[in-house]
Amino acid sequence: MEQLFIRLSSAEREPLHWLIWSPEQSELIASGTLNDLSELSQLTDHARSREVICYAPGTDVLLTEVELPSSAIRMLPQVVPNALEDELAQDISELHFAWPPAKKGGAVLGLHVAVVARDAMHKWLSALEQADIECDEIYPDIFMVPAPQVQPQLSESEEGADPAPEQGLHPTSLTLGETVIIRTGQYTGFTTDTALAPIVTEGMQLQPVEKMDIEVPLSVVATTYNARKSTPPMINLRQQEFRSQHKKRKGVKASTYKPAAIAAGVLLAVAYSSQVIEYVHLGNQSEQLEQAIEQTYRDAFPNEKRIVNVRSQLNRHLESLGMQGTKSSPLELLAHLESAFKANRDVRLELIRYDDKTLRMQVKANSFASLENFRKVANQGGQIVVEQGPVNNQSGAVSGALTVKKDV
Description:
Layout: E1 3-7, E2 16-22, E3 27-34, H1 44-47, E4 51-56, E5 61-69, H2 76-84, E6 95-98, E7 108-117, H3 118-130, E8 137-140, H4 165-168, E9 172-176, E10 179-183, E11 189-193, H5 197-200, E12 207-208, H6 220-226, H7 254-279, H8 285-300, H9 310-320, H10 329-335, H11 338-343, E13 348-355, E14 358-365, H12 368-380, E15 384-394, E16 397-406
Parallel strand pairs: 1-4, 4-8, 9-12
Antiparallel strand pairs: 1-2, 2-3, 5-7, 6-7, 9-10, 10-11, 13-14, 14-16, 15-16
């Protein structure tokens, strides 16, 4: 499943940064910024059918550590706030405390804790709810950056050798606009303004991710998150009273729409592949595509042993679900794009979805001009409306999102 990463903001007019990542392709699909939380609804469509991971600004989160007797592991929600009360200027009743999964071992339990104002948590969750975005994970933003790695030790004979802080660890950093996120350890770090960064990082040998061997610096957020199984667990702020509770729609069972969703998805794969075979020269790849279509159908309907005509058999499944009208919609929209694809041979279709009578595509082209010309040609027929979404320049190629609707 694709992933949508969002770095939330707290102050008014503080930008939000976001990106969409494909774990299967290990590729950044789209990215951008919003002016503040009030514009979060612009990501509602992006959040559908994607895993959403959010990050809280480090300026709002205190990362600390507390030592407790191992016997307290079953009473952490009561013990942790009281253990930190003397270190905090704010009343503990106004604060939310979160920590990674704790394991009992030894007489003393060392626990890393994230502290954030309850008002801030309510504000972020309210903004997500108003934007109709479900998010089970909110982490402090230092977890957007990979943890520092031990650097090779310099020999004593090397002049100018500067010992690295924290036992050979050089902090890693990521710059987002006017903000710098600095991670100094597995559970330590801070966030500051670019203007203050030189002062607060004086004496540190920072490793900016922008200077690492990373094609797109922002992609480090996704790669760091997806490497979490091989690293110590992160601190998810959505726990205890802020634990995620998915709402179930009354009177509707998810299983009711599951066969329809599978059938519609397979139909779209058939429709898209058929159009590509017809309008774009794929040569000997067409046979491989046909085999892939048949295999997708078998995966969706494993009990169906005999396959004669995938399209007609799939349509029968749709009709049995009362979806007779669905079968023509994606085909019709794709057919109207024929002239645009022919006029712009460098435009390559990477991802495609169909929902709510709208075709959503992710495409790549050689230039912005080619992508814009594709949109203009597609709109000339007057049958459809093609709108352009976020566009990014990646490694000499332009990646952009397009939505296609029937002109009414």
